[in-house]
Amino acid sequence: MKEAIRKAKETLAQTEAVIIGAGAGLSTAAGFVYSGERFEKYFGDFGRRYGFRDMYSGGFYPYQTQEEFWAYFSRNIWVNRYMNAPKPVYQNLFQLVQGKDYFVLTTNVDHCFQKAGFEKQRLFYTQGDYGLFQCSKPCCRKTWDNEESVRGMILSQGFEISAENELRLPEGKTAAMTIPSALLPKCPNCGRPLTTNLRSDDKFVEDEGWEAAASAYEVWVKAHQQEKTVYLEIGVGFNTPGIIKYNFWQQVYQNPQAVYICLNPEAGDVPKEIQDRSILIGGDSAAAIEALIP
Ligand SMILES: [Zn+2]
Prior knowledge:
By secondary structure, this protein is of the alpha/beta class. It has eleven helices and eleven strands. The chain starts with a helix and ends with a helix.
């Protein structure tokens, strides 16, 4: 393991162009955990009433009313998008690419890259952003920032929001598990309900920002196709391997000067064609990122 870190560090030091491909595992490493203590703290009441035990299942529960659904979902968005990650993993990663010509391709929707200082022009969020609303139909290809709307729903449940966006309940109070109907988010264009701008079905809105990010990604990849480039994959599982993992393998295969570095607790195999240009680092990705900082 030490040898892999040493090799990766040396490769990064010698390479100007780095593309990061990040999956859910990176946010898990940063402490965005969807069950256990974090779930209990913000969703314990929902869990007890409806019988689920993690934030993910809670998002799929068939709530009887939109008011209950949004009480749950507003907490979910706030906790996983507007609150800071418990550990500075993204900040460390940002240090790692300081002074480099970097780009980020990610399936994460939690906005952590931007919060850590990564330039928006160098990011492509393929699966959307938890901080945006879109029309549920959709009637148009627009998205809207949802911070104010979500904040209102949170406050209506009795929570207080600190300057650091932390949620807390005043002493002795219990949170409401529903919101006033007046706060239900409605499309400014057609009046239908709004929904989060996440790719979960074919209704996902690819707005102007998304299109711009998609082409920025294309341009970056093309510009570095025949240059020394590091493809740094972090926390990508096998849910949607086509977006990052297979894509990176392909790019590395086609560019003899490219190196593939994979950080994943279960760093698996790579195709034999790129094995000699691959560095696999298993174990805790947070620790590996820290060790890779120059
Ligand atoms: Zn609409």
